[in-house]
Each structure stands twice: as structure tokens, then as C-alpha cells.
Amino acid sequence: MTLINWYEKNKTQAADWQSEAGNPAPKAVVIADDTTKADEAYRLACEGTALLYRGDFQNAKQLLQAITRRVDRKPVKPAASLLEAFHQHRARQIGRANITNKVLIELKYGACDLPRAPDVKAAVQAALIVDDNTGKLPARLVLSLRELLGMVGAHEWRKKGVPIHALNANIHAHYGVYSPIRGEYLDLIDQAPLSSPQVAWDIGTGTGVIAAILVARGVKQVVATDNQPRALTCATENIQRLNMQSHIQVMQADLFPAGSADLIVCNPPWLPAKANAPIEHAVYDPESKMLKGFLSGLKAHLNPEGEGWLIMSNLAEQIGLRQPEALNTWIHEAGLQVVDKLDIAPTHAKASDQSDPLYAARAKEVTSLYRLKCV
């Protein structure tokens, strides 16, 4: 971790700096408390000055909410196309985060000692993957209040879990690992024709939910790969909770492990755009790198008569981020053919939210499972 420095109590203070997005520590830091006015805090944040809060924790949350409201009041320029609307939306998200992340909180060994602060230590430990038995959180750690609240929210979701109909059980997503809340793609995996594969691979396993569904459908052996430590830990815990560890091997790999399989499944990020935080890599795949990597490597890893399952939304095509024929072209160039395609309409809330700037694209979105075989 890097350090953040500020002046307080007549001397320069220092603490470890935490930013999930990898943002550098702010150079200008002032002390804020319960007397700090929202307009002044907003002005300072817009200028790049961070506010380290020393008052009541609930008042800090109210100040953050007030700053957020001021950010959201900025008028939205009409977009000439869905592609322009997308780029405007992303720019607003980034700008919003840059300003709202300027409200900071200090933790001492993972605990917040502000009045009316909740017990956040377990959530911070879970987010930073720190085990009490093997390591300690820093004595002084500064991070944005927005990030801390994200850790707390993720921890509560992790404890509760997401119900997965195909498993008749819950899947528990760790902080920084994409939660399987969009269940339609899981329904496709549960319903696609399965010709008794002995060995299957789940590429980019995340929570391990796809690997678990394959085992629930009768696949004897599944290798679940990911290149992110948090995902590997998360998938391992979920698989153990489901008592499927004798059927699923979790392995660190950049896409494919060595060898070959009867069935290889991949649900890559759906939008070819820049990711601005680690969690966004589950949604954004810059230049379609993972998608192209899966397709180009699939043929070399499939057993004779084996199948590859690609789960993709057409949202990128609806927005204009990818040309309509690009995916079929990449499939053909990889020496593959589509033998079947299963479609399903989205059921998540944004699909019917007409206030969403991308509603026109989301209303036409279709999620598909492509069954691929070698030519």
C-alpha cells in the first residue's frame, strides 16, 4: 500500500492508503466534521481536495449523500445516438466517483472509532482478504467512505447469498467478485442440451456458480479457472459449501488450463469498453480481449465431438459498441460453427427502467448461449 499524508493537530500525519480502483492518494486533504457545509464540501471535492471526516459517522454519510445529489443535478446533454449516450453515461459515472470518493474515513486496525459508526472490521477484513490468523490490517488505514460502505454492503450480501434456482441453494459472492444476480444466463446453462460430458471446464469461474450447475446436471469432473485471487477464493468456498469439491477443481489460469475437455463454458464480460475498477472487469472487456481469446483457443482444447458454450448478450451490438456481424466472424475465423443458439430475454430491473439512459438498448437485449463445435 502507498501512504496518504495530511496536516492535523499541528503536525503531518500519515496512514496507509486504500483504493480499490488503484487511484493515487489525494495530495490535498482537509479535516471535515459535523460543522462542514455540503456546498463547501462539494466545492472542495470538485477542486480535487479530499475531506477526512472526524465527526459523527452518520453525519458523514449524510454529507456524502448531499455531495452525490449535487453531482447528479448536473444537466445531461441530449445524446445523438445510443453509442454517444453510453459514453456520456460512463463519463458521468467516472466523474461522479471522482468527486464522491473525496470523503475519506480513517480506520484503526480495520475499525472505525467515529461516534455512531457500525462495526465494519469484518467487512474490511473480508474485502481486503486478511485473515486474523495470518496477518493484520494496518494500524492506520484511510479510504473513501463510499468504498467503505461498498465493503459493508458486499459483506451483508455475501452473508445472505443469492438464491440459484438450478442449485436449490445460495451462492455467496465475495467483495470484488461479480454476483450472479442476473439469473437468465444461468437458466440457459441449466436448460441447454447436455450430451453426458465427462470433463467440463468453466472459464472465468467467478463465484463458481456455472461449475456448480454443471455438476448438478451430472458432469462428473469440472475444472473452474480464473486469474483473480478473490474469485479463486470465492469459488472454492462456494464449492465447499455445496459439497462439490470432489467434482470441481479450482485452478488459477489465464483462460484455459492444460489439456482438453468435452465441454468448455465461458461467460465473458459482455461490453467491449474500458474497466475503471477491478469489479468492472466482470462487465467490461476492453477490445473484446477475453471473448476473442476464448474463441481463438477453444478448438485446440476441445475433445473430438466436444462443445464450447459461449454465453453472450447482444447489448454491445444494440449500443453500437460491436458490429452486428463481428461475433459470427470471430467464430468462423476460429474454426468453429454454431450448432445451436438458445435465447432468453433479460428479467433484471434495468430492462424495464425507462429512466436509464440505455433503456432503448436494454429493452431489445437478448442473452444467448451459443453451442459451438469445431468445423
From TrEMBL:
Organism lineage: Bacteria, Pseudomonadati, Pseudomonadota, Betaproteobacteria, Nitrosomonadales
GO BP term (any one): methylation
SUPFAM superfamilies registered for this protein in UniProt: S-adenosyl-L-methionine-dependent methyltransferases
Pfam families per UniProt: MTS (PF05175)
Molecular function per GO: methyltransferase activity
Keyword check for Transmembrane: no
Protein's recorded name: Methyltransferase
Keywords: Methyltransferase, S-adenosyl-L-methionine, Transferase
Keyword Methyltransferase set for record: yes
PROSITE patterns the UniProt entry points to: N6_MTASE (PS00092)
Residue ranges of domain Methyltransferase small in the record: 198-312
Domain of life the protein comes from: Bacteria
Transmembrane segments: none
